[in-house]
Amino acid sequence: xxxxxxxxxxxxxxxxxxxxxxxxxxxxxxxxxxxxxxxxxxxxxxxxxxxxxxxxxxxxxxxxxxxxxxxxxxxxxxxxxxxxxxxxxxxxxxxxxxxxxxxxxxxxxxxxxxxxxxxxxxxxxxxxxxxxxxxxxxxxxxxxxxxxxxxxxxxxxxxxxxxxxxxxxxxxxxxxxxxxxxxxxxxxxxxxxxxxxxxxxxxxxxxxxxxxxxxxxxxxxxxxxxxxxxxxxxxxxxxxxxxxxxxxxxxxxxxxxxxxxxxxxxxxxxxxxxxxxxxxxxxxxxxxxxxxxxxxxxxxxxxxxxxxxxxxxxxxxxxxxxxxxxxxxxxxxxxxxxxxxxxxxxxxxxxxxxxxxxxxxxxxxxxxxxxxxxxxxxxxxxxxxxxxxxxxxxxxxxxxxxxxxxxxxxxxxxxxxxxxxxxxxxxxxxxxxxxxxxxxxxxxxxxxxxxxxxxxxxxxxxxxxxxxxxxxxxxxxxxxxxxxxxxxxxxxxxxxxxxxxxxxxxxxxxxxxxxxxxxxxxxxxxxxxxxxxxxxxxxxxxxxxxxxxxxxxxxxxxxxxxxxxxxxxxxxxxxxxxxxxxxxxxxxxxxxxxxxxxxxxxxxxxxxxxxxxxxxxxxxxxxxxxxxxxxxxxxxxxxxxxxxxxxxxxxxxxxxxxxxxxxxxx
Length: 666
Description:
alpha+beta, five-stranded antiparallel beta sheet, 19 helices
């Protein structure tokens, strides 16, 4: 008992540990692998064995049913033949004694298998319930001197008819109604049917003549199209709520009795036959349970051994995810898990190094992309790159955009951290299209050496040139030189190449922004001139008002972003005059009231024109309200005082001043 208790305690502890590790996905996978690997062979073996046993039992059942259906069918046939022969003998006795007495005599003495005897002439067939004449097969059978079997619609209405030739009243027929108990072999409650089997006999016209288990009258469990030869048909049958296996054998009666063949069906319950399989299943379930328990215990032990170091690795990775790079995995043992722990610790060291480089690189990216001036971009790159790159000299070579093609600007920083600038006249050939390794090993290296020599820096050891893309014009280089051999790594080379690419993007962006800004203001100026050109009285008005408004704004120390809005609004403030007739704008004398009202609509027209343009929504107040007055008598909204937008008030001063100092006929 003590040993059993100790075993149970140990197994419970093992299961508890296994359950804890099963909360992990890897633990569940290992457990599933164990269970599948152990259970699939057992299940496959059990299924195959069960199928083999079931097939063998069904095969034995089929042989038994086939043999029984044939033997029972032959017994029925023998009884019918015996009754037919007795009827033939009785007919010959009647023929020798003349017309029989229907009330008794020979007809009243019933032979075995006959329940009733009747005699009719050929003209009295109708009173037997088979019509005025016999079926063709029966007439042919009687003409040949053989008995005929007639089916009256049920087992109690089966008749054997024989011909009575040469009787006194002419040729007649003797009718014998069959005794079903005799025909089926169930006289006295005895039967040759084996225990557990069911016997059914069907007539040729689909009628159930006899069945030991009651069934619906017209239910036929098999294909009624029987073969022309004597063969057994096996089938499954659901009879009286029970699944059965059956065998059907055709009992041919054409030759002896001129009747359609009967079908003898013998069936047996499948459950009785498959009882050994049911017992096998119960035993199998117990076996599966025991196997599963053993597998789970073994898998729990292995999972614990495997997942404990994995749990430590998981904890370490979570610490790294929380940016704690001081955590290390203990190296225990000498298996693959210890190798993994060593690799993980080495990888952590590499991550620390790379993160430091990436952080510095991102600082360079943010600083570079926040600048739009070329000098500021170069100064930022040099100061930040000096902190993370191992070379003694770092220089940025860019073309002098305002000088000849052979002139270059060089900004250089050495280990002292001081930036120096100079201009060089050199004929350089740069490769800006190849792969990074090609670009650093061909023309760019030669160009970097030329620059270093021109700067008076010789014997600097390894010199490299990292290309800056052609988006800057003719392109440029980040040049590196010197540095201790152990400090210059492939990572440092790739980092420098990435910085060069980022400088290319930053310089290209700065150049594009300047071009877009110039195009933007050029477009607005051209638009303003097009507006002013509609009337020769207002030529140059928008540009003069813009210059005057900006001068006022600067004197008032308005912030630069607000001055940009004021500049846009001033250039476009009279855009609404596009909707004013030239006859009003160019009228040489005072305007009528109607003309004055129409002229006063131009601020609102201008606001409507600019409203769909999202970029000019911020200047709609300037355009619409630059003709409002402090006393509220302006137009179009009659705003007063500080309700008038501030920049619109500034523009109003400049606009009124230019109007008063210009020749305006109206």
